[in-house]
Each structure stands twice: as structure tokens, then as C-alpha cells.
């Protein structure tokens, strides 16, 4: 039995973020106006990300928080999608991502 007082034998290597497959939780604050969801779904499609669930919660005046969980996707695709979202005029703050393990 391996105890906490003994170091692991052998080397451990971390998987490159480009190779991580996982589900993800995203929070995106957007302007609450017509057409925003349609534009976002196109961006998800362009980056090969499939939405599992989505919930919209009101935020500050004329904005909403979109709480999205994805199906399994490559993290590099999710990261690229989030960078693309940051430049959109209806995305108010940088999106937040958490891996769902």
C-alpha cells in the first residue's frame, strides 16, 4: 500500500490541454437581445462543441448569464471558442470554463 509519506515511484506526466476530452461548464454573460442565442450556437458549431444543457438567468439590466454544459469535447476547441466569443459585441465579460469530470 502506498502511503502519503512516500513519493510516487516513476514519473507522472500531465496530458497536454490540446488532448483533454471532457464535458465543460461555461458561464457567458451576454446582452439580452434578439439573435444572441442564434449567433452563439453558430460559434459552438464552428468549434465542434455540442450543448448538453443551457439555462439563462437574468443579470444586470439588459444582460443575462448563460449557464451551459457541453457534451464531451476537446479542451483546445473549447478554449478557441471562448477566445472567439470574447471579441463579440454582445459578450460582456470573458466567458468562464470549468471541466466536468
Features:
101 residues; alpha+beta; Alpha-Beta Plaits; five-stranded antiparallel beta sheet; 23% helix; 34% strand
Structure report:
The protein has helices at 36-46, 75-86, and strands at 21-31, 51-58, 63-70, 73-74, 96-100. Strands 1, 2, 3, 4 and 5 form a 5-stranded antiparallel sheet that branches. The chain has a single domain (19-100), classed as ACT domain (Alpha-Beta Plaits), CATH 3.30.70.260. The chain is α+β, with helices and mostly antiparallel strands. The model has no long low-confidence stretch (mean pLDDT 90). The longest helix is centred in the last third of the chain and has 12 residues, at 75-86.
Summarize the entry for a quick read:
This protein has 101 residues and is an alpha+beta fold. The chain has helices at 36-46, 75-86, and strands at 21-31, 51-58, 63-70, 73-74, 96-100.
Low-confidence stretches: none
Q: Total helix count? A: 2
Report the mean per-residue pLDDT as an integer.
90
Number of domains: 1
Under the CATH scheme, which class? Answer: Alpha Beta
From the 3D structure, determine the CATH topology.
Alpha-Beta Plaits
What's the gyration radius in Å? 17 Å
* Outline type: elongated
Name given to the CATH homologous superfamily? ACT domain
**Global structural class:** alpha+beta
Amino acid at each position: 500500500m502506498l502511503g502519503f509519506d512516500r513519493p510516487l515511484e516513476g514519473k507522472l506526466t500531465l496530458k497536454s490541454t490540446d488532448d483533454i476530452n471532457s464535458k465543460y461548464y461555461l458561464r457567458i454573460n451576454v446582452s439580452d437581445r434578439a439573435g444572441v442565442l442564434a449567433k452563439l450556437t453558430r460559434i459552438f458549431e464552428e468549434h465542434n462543441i455540442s450543448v448538453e444543457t443551457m439555462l439563462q438567468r437574468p443579470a444586470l439590466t439588459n444582460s443575462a448569464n448563460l449557464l451551459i454544459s457541453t457534451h464531451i469535447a476537446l479542451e483546445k476547441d473549447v478554449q478557441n471558442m471562448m477566445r472567439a466569443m470574447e471579441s463579440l459585441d454582445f459578450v460582456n465579460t470573458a466567458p468562464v470554463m470549468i471541466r466536468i469530470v
